[in-house]
Amino acid sequence: MEPGDSTEETPLPLELSRFQVSEEYGFLLPDPLTELPVPYGPWMEIAHDLPQLIASRQLRSRVHQMPQLSTGHLRGREELHLAHLVLSFITMGYIWQEGEEGTVKVLPRNLAIPFWEVSQALGLPPILSHADFVLANWRRKNPNGNLDTIVSLPGGESLRGFILVTFLVEKAAVPGIKAIVQVVSAILQQEEETLLKALQVLAEAIGDMSKALRRMHDYVDPAVFYTVIRIFLSGWKDNPAMPQGLVYEGVSEETMAFSGGSAAQSTVLHAFDELLGIRHREQSTAFLHRMRDYMPPPHRAFVEAIGRAPSLKQHLLSSGSEQLRAAFNQCVSALAELRSYHITVVTKYITIAAAKAKAGRAEPGDRAGPSVGKPLSALETKGTGGSHIFSFLKSVRDTTREGVISA
Fold it and tell me: Do you know which SUPFAM superfamilies this protein is assigned to (predicted)?
């Protein structure tokens, strides 16, 4: 295995390639591998059959029969990312196969040890995160570019839609990510015209992210998301269903606690916040900073490098340019709007779906999983990352709005 790249102090101006950020795909892994080398066939066989194994309650017994494989044959970042993706999906299925009341306290060594080793090599935690679920979990179905996931969990077409719409949101952010580099460079070079254009590109990219997020309604059934998909994104930190955390057998005798997958683990909004000088309240900031531990280290380093760059806000205040201030405020407004729309989506997919599930009015849809017909209780008011979801989302939306520069 190869260790993750060093994230030492980075000189300015910024260069995307230094942070494993793609010019074409941003934080998404460009053209991820879809198969591991032959020795890892036992992992891939289980991974490709996960929804059926979970629905038939056979996954745990299959994992117990899995051979103990060495991670020593994995080469390069792409193989490591696919191994992490596969092992994280198997782990989530193993933990939640029987629903929130049938969890286990120990992850068996033949899964825990390789998962831990691959996680250490990538600098990621040994749990399913946004980096697995979305960034590394896409492939082209055919030459026309139609997309599909590499591995799946229960939830059928709704799960596939949830992953791929989130992929489209990440892809829509790419011009904005490139604009960050241009903004920092323009400040350093005192190029006001370049700065103005970069801010306009950034505002447009954030608007395009909101448009992409709207497609969630076309592809994801709220009942399926709430009663089936959500549990498999849940972690074992701040989760009453697993208050003690999880023992990774063969790694440590002590329990460990990790947060589940969350949109707060996406590097995109952290990068935009850092550039625009958005300052969230203490509790929200603490949660967001903890979520950075779930990002690939080079992406986290990119956010930190933006934070070390000259302040965009201070530059605009000292420049006195009305045009630049208006362009900046357009970026902030677009970001606040995106966060507002995220609240609308979460209301539909959690609050309203929870009420319907409780009332027994949830439609069957394409559901198949442990919690069919039985709404979650442990995470009723929390996000899969463990935050109190509505107070958190409203707080970060409000503090984003406060980021505008008044005349």
Answer: Indolic compounds 2,3-dioxygenase-like
